[in-house]
Design brief:
Elements lengths: L1 H10 L3 E4 L2 E4 L2 H11 L15 E5 L2 E6 L8 E5 L14 H23 L6 E12 L19 E12 L7 H14 L1 H5 L4 E9 L4
Parallel strand pairs: 7-8
Antiparallel strand pairs: 1-2, 3-4, 4-5, 6-7
Helix pairs in contact: 3-4
């Protein structure tokens, strides 16, 4: 009985002395110390601005993006298929949107792969994306009638084949993690939030 009482008094204190170091006795205190030991998350508040100028006639438009920090300006031209009034000499605006999605996802995935723990040894990603929309909505008449639907993209579908560096040991589960973080952070993907995405990211075994 005396031994039990001594043991209870010894463990009832706020801290124990272990090798001269004070150890926290409560879970709350231990949690607080562990939180202070974690690295503070990096928060970026930079606002990125984008600009372009353009002009067009008929179904075609030429758009110019000013160069950044002394770089040459970039220029793109849009067009439409012949059956809807264009000359079919350049990609359609919606096709550029699909291209923007691929470009944004691959650059975001590169960033995500570099910061995954352990680092994801990404070599490249091969995209095969397609998109669908209701083509009759934009040209429905009369103009003052209610639109019969939405002219927006309805769905984006296809595959992204993820290729890893040689001698890497990545898994499909890690590819799924890469896709999840990429799509959550990709500005173009998030801008298309109302679109139904049916894209599948697949692991391509590394080739020696």
């Amino acid at each position: 009985m005396a031994t039990t009482g001594l043991l209870a008094r010894a463990t009832r204190g706020c801290a124990l002395r272990l090798g001269g170091t004070r150890a926290p006795a409560s879970l709350a205190e231990r949690t607080k110390l562990e939180q202070h030991s974690l690295p503070a998350p990096r928060v970026y508040s930079t606002t990125y601005a984008y600009e372009c100028s353009g002009s067009g006639v008929g179904a075609s438009a030429k758009v110019v993006f000013p160069g950044r920090k002394g770089a040459q300006p970039h220029e793109v031209t849009t067009d439409l298929p012949k059956k809807i009034g264009g000359k079919d000499e350049h990609p359609q605006p919606v096709e550029y949107l699909l291209a923007a999605l691929i470009g944004c996802e691959v650059s975001t995935a590169t960033f995500v792969a570099r910061h995954m723990k352990p680092r994801f040894r990404l070599a490249s990603i091969d995209f095969d994306y397609k998109a669908e929309r209701n083509g009759g909505v934009p040209v429905s008449l009369p103009l003052d009638a209610d639109l019969p639907g939405s002219p927006a993209l309805q769905r984006v579908y296809g595959t992204a084949t993820v290729r890893c560096a040689a001698s890497s040991a990545e898994t499909q589960a890690r590819v799924d993690e890469l896709r999840r973080h990429t799509q959550a952070r990709c500005p173009v993907h998030r801008t298309l939030a109302g679109v139904r995405f049916e894209t599948e990211w697949l692991l391509k075994e590394a080739e020696e």
